[in-house]
Design a protein that fits this description.
single chain; alpha+beta; 4-stranded antiparallel sheet; 17 helices; 45% helix; 17% strand; globular; binds (R)-mevalonate
Amino acid sequence: MTTTDVHVVINKGKSCAESAGVTASDSPGSTHSFNAGPRSSRITGFAQMEPSQRLDALVERGFMNDEQAAVFCSPAQVSSELADNFIENCVGSFSLPLGIATNFLIDGREALIPMAVEESSVVAAASHGAKLARTRGGFFTTPTKTIATSQIQFKVAPQDAASVPVWFERVRSELLERANNCHPRLLARGGGATGVELRVLPKPGMFVIHVHVDTREAMGANIVNTIAEDIGRWLPSSLPCTVGLKILTNLTIHRLTRVRCEVDPKALEMSGFSGAQAVERIVAAWEFADLDPYRAATHNKGIMNGVDPVVIATGNDWRAVEAGAHAFAAISGHYKPLTKWSVGDEGQLVGEIAIPVAIGTVGGVTRLHPAVQSSLALLGHPTADVLSGMIASVGLAQNLSALRALACEGIQRGHMALHEKNIEMMRRYDHIPSLTAVARGNGASRTE
Ligand code: MEV
């Protein structure tokens, strides 16, 4: 397939660049030829291409088909009817830029990562971190369980509190059975309740039951909330108590995703620093976050710079993932970094991340949003556990890039170059009349 063929099919005769008013001769990368090489996520010159050429490159390398790629540059991905079904009081849709992070090698598989994000540097930093990790084989994930947890809070008279653990042991299997009866189809898909737990809260007579459920491909909020409410209704018939809240927890510790990578110190050499010095400085930068919650908050924000855009592009609930990540960071009683960096036996930099990633690949927006479907296609239609590993890998790559920049040269040099580009864009687009002004029939006024 030639580049021209791809343009014609993707955009039904019009490339994204043409749709945006840029002609082929304006385009800086217009002479770039894509050699349909092996399916690698290292795409030479990707950053210098026009958006439509980047899409062509993804199609030519077999990461997506023409129709899936066309969705990314379609101006109306979500119809007003669809949007109106997603939320209440809907008046339209809100767009975010979608970038593709390159260079990812995850468990030996090449991966191009869709990232929906407005912050400059983020996609470049993820790609850079992934390139560094490739020097020693990329990212290695530990298989993740897709477990979500219901909480059912209840209270007994303080004098009855001692008998509650005995009662719980008696009803343990009944609780599991009740949970599974709520979702017989989940059982058929190999999921279902995997365990129940009684937790004593630090107030006399106050308890909470946890029901752990393997939700398979679903993020599982609806599944575990239904179970929580069912058990909450049944509870007073088995134990004299007052039932409180019945809802999932976003602190999904049974969904912990662990990823590890290593970096060859040679790849970290830069003017003024040897590879070994860079390794040492990156580890020291991590140690700062380990010692100081003020630094840990920023360190973890940088990790979430990588995590959230993939969670968004795959149609998942980024507020849930954020809540889980920060609650997990504080689980020891002190707010800590979600990653750890150390020096390996051979002087290599070793990075590890442990983060709960409660996402799904089915349900709600995932199935309905065309760009989400294209993102999942680009990722090779991963299962939920594999997608969790990919998301955590991007978080680790992002953190590596940030620490390397901060520990060695500072981030402002790279940041300011991109920031300048944004300022220039603002200058260029400042003459565009605001939609409000156009709607009021006053197209001459400046952007509001
Ligand atoms: C900026 O969005 C993120 C960083 O502040 C992260 C960090 O400091 O580790 C660069």
